[in-house]
């Protein structure tokens, strides 16, 4: 939210009331409450008149986490949506000296200065982590009369910011304005399906803004030396999270917001989609599966996309009997072949759907404020949206899925969940629609995940979701939306996946060879290179808007490459399963940005064209049709001379701390094994 005109002036129509200082404080056993006058300090009783005071409450929900709540006017928020946090019994110490107040949780201390100048310093083991100082905290009123609570933290020299969800823009967030607001904007813009108001800094801390509503970030934009975050509410709660390193910060953050579960091992194999083709039926799906086996491509999951239901009826949750006269037989035959079945769903119910009347009669849809059903024609004619704040609606929706699960469906692709209205609508629980917009996807995917776990067991529960918010990491897997069939989109997708992983999302996938295959279809070259990347991701799926992405459509060599890398992933299954367990225990993603794994190597701070697949494998996808890859081999702290990395596919050795540029055929790419590791057999440092 930009409200300044340069460094000195305020934009026309805006009112800005800065916190000037801390006037007084109350100290309880576990809370420090500060009373902060706006615009100018209080020096006399007369200064207390006609003046706003921002109340700031400091608490700690977890060791090494300090939470700040800024309150302008108190409101009853008991009926509003909120993230399910997991506070622990945290011992804090609060001290008052002649110069300041000190609030300590674990190894993190907030020092708040007394006097006429504002100064909040976060210090870990004697070292400054970040700071909020002059004109950092404010109550801002925009020209429409909307109140915003604003705060800012300093950007130190050389400090870089990462995260804020699955973002397709440049990996380092510095210089970007980011609105955390879920939108169905594709993968070529600054909009995002998965907005997470949590960022990481290379200085070793994180910042989490705890609201389900809009959060606007200005990262070195409004003030080039600060990160600003603002919410259109009367209060704002945020936490500064520290840790021993960046992984430790994610561990602490996911302790608070939820750990990803360990995913079923079968989900780690190759998924093949029917794409959005309307021509698939029961026989052709089995034929496709058998053709993959005939071409020696191991397959784990078949995804049956939207046309398993009749057109204009999405979602009916009823098989199109013309295409699928015996769905139980289809599912049984897939299982006999060792293949799991996933089907496409969303939370939208078309007016033509045979279940629309049932949902309307029972009040299961989001309503207009006049009590009628909210509907529009975007996506499906007369489409309504299931209201998951209504427990009966949730059970009704789950009952439709339970029937499919009992038929033999193994999991669901939970598409959409971003286009949720906020104007003139009402929920069953009367929650603020603006606070429900991002939160909706959490209720939606939770409902699907939980009914899947109830039928197939928690060890087999998985979804394939596009939208997400804070806590959605508890309901994996997530995939990266709708990229085009270009190398640029392939690189965009990788940046987005690495960014999402910074928020404790343990798993991530993408549409191999691109979703949007018109007007530009994937070339055989792109298909093979994206196949390498896709089968070296935590989860791997071929999918398209029109074109079936089976390898034989792209030539004999594409078949060979797909077979080789699908088999490689199968060989890596025990390693990936172990990384899944690590993600469950720590929140650290399977696919990791280089800075996350090597925070002490400055070269890794900006790299977004390669990644670590778990602890021990470096992957550098090839993003050009000339076959050249430019990649960096990290230099670990304390690395000894001779500790070289080796290419798992070629055996070639690479010294750390250097950039390399090499040309690769379609059967190879930079896939380097960390010194001392053997991901195909035993883990790094373990006994043989």
UniProtKB/TrEMBL annotation:
Domain Glycosyl hydrolase family 31 C-terminal: 587-677
GO biological process: carbohydrate metabolic process
Pfam families the record matches: Gal_mutarotas_2, Glyco_hydro_31_2nd, Glyco_hydro_31_3rd
One of the record's GO molecular function terms: carbohydrate binding
NCBIfam families in UniProt: PRK10658.1
PANTHER family, sorted: GLYCOSIDASE FAMILY 31, MYOGENESIS-REGULATING GLYCOSIDASE
Name of the protein in its database record: alpha-D-xyloside xylohydrolase
Natural source organism: Bifidobacterium apousia
Taxonomy of the source species: Bacteria, Bacillati, Actinomycetota, Actinomycetes, Bifidobacteriales
């Amino acid at each position: 939210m930009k409200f300044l005109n340069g460094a000195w002036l305020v934009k026309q129509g805006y009112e800005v009331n800065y916190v000037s200082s801390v006037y007084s404080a109350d100290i309880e056993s576990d809370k420090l409450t500060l009373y902060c006058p706006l615009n100018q300090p209080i020096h006399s009783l007369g200064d207390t008149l006609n003046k706003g005071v921002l109340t700031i409450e400091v608490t700690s929900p977890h060791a090494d986490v300090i939470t700040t709540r800024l309150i302008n006017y108190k409101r009853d928020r008991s009926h509003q949506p909120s993230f399910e946090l997991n506070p622990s019994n945290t011992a804090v110490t609060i001290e008052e000296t002649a110069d300041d107040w000190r609030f300590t949780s674990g190894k993190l201390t907030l020092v708040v200065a007394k006097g006429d100048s504002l100064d909040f310093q976060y210090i870990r083991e004697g070292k400054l982590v970040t700071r909020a100082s002059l004109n950092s905290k404010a109550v801002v009123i925009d020209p429409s009369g909307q109140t915003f609570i604003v705060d800012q933290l300093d950007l130190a020299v050389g400090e870089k910011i990462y995260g804020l969800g699955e973002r397709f823009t440049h990996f380092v967030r510095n210089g970007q304005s980011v609105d955390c607001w879920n939108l169905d904007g594709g993968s070529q813009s600054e909009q995002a399906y998965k907005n997470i108001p949590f960022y990481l800094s290379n200085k070793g801390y994180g910042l989490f803004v705890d609201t389900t509503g809009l959060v606007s970030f200005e990262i070195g934009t409004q003030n080039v030396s600060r990160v600003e975050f603002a919410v259109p509410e009367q209060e704002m709660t945020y936490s500064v999270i520290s840790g021993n390193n960046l992984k430790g910060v994610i561990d602490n953050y996911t302790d608070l917001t939820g750990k990803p579960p360990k995913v079923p091992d079968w989900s780690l194999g190759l998924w093949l989609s029917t794409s959005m083709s309307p021509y698939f039926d029961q026989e052709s799906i089995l034929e496709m599966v058998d053709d993959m086996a005939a071409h020696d491509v191991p397959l784990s999951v078949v995804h049956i996309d939207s046309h398993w239901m009749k057109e204009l009826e999405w979602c009916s949750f009823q098989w199109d009997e013309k295409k699928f006269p015996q769905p139980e037989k289809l599912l049984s035959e897939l299982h006999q072949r060792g293949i799991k079945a996933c089907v496409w769903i969303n939370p939208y119910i078309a007016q033509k759907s045979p279940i629309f009347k049932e949902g309307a009669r029972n009040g299961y849809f989001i309503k207009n404020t006049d009590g009628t059903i909210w509907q529009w024609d975007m996506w499906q004619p007369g489409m309504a949206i299931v209201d998951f704040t209504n427990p009966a609606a949730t059970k009704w929706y789950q009952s439709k899925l339970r029937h499919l699960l009992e038929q033999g469906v193994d999991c669901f692709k939970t598409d959409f969940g971003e286009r949720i209205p906020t104007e003139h609508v009402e929920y069953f629980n009367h929650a603020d629609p603006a606070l429900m917009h991002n939160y909706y996807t959490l209720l939606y995917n939770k409902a699907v995940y939980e009914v899947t776990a109830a039928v197939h067991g928690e060890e087999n529960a998985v979804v394939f979701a596009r939208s997400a918010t804070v806590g959605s990491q508890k309901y994996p897997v997530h995939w990266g939306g709708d990229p085009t069939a270009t190398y640029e989109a392939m690189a965009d997708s990788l940046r987005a996946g690495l960014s999402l992983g910074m928020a404790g999302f343990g798993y991530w996938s993408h549409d191999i060879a691109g979703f949007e295959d018109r007007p530009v279809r994937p070339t055989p070259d792109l298909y093979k290179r994206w196949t390498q990347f896709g089968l070296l991701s935590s989860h791997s799926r071929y999918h398209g808007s029109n074109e079936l992405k089976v390898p034989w459509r792209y030539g004999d060599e594409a078949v060979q490459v797909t077979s080789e890398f699908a088999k490689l992933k199968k060989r890596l299954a025990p390693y990936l399963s172990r990384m899944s367990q690590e993600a469950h225990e720590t929140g650290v993603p399977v696919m990791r940005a280089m800075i996350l794994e090597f925070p002490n190597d400055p070269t890794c701070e900006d790299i977004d064209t390669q990644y670590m697949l778990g602890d021990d494998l470096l992957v550098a996808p090839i993003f050009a049709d000339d076959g050249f890859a430019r990649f960096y081999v990290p230099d670990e702290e304390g690395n000894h001379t001779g500790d070289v990395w080796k290419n798992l596919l070629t055996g070639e050795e690479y010294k750390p701390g250097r950039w390399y540029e090499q040309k690769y055929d379609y059967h190879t790419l930079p896939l380097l094994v960390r010194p001392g590791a053997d991901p195909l057999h035993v883990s790094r440092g373990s006994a043989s």
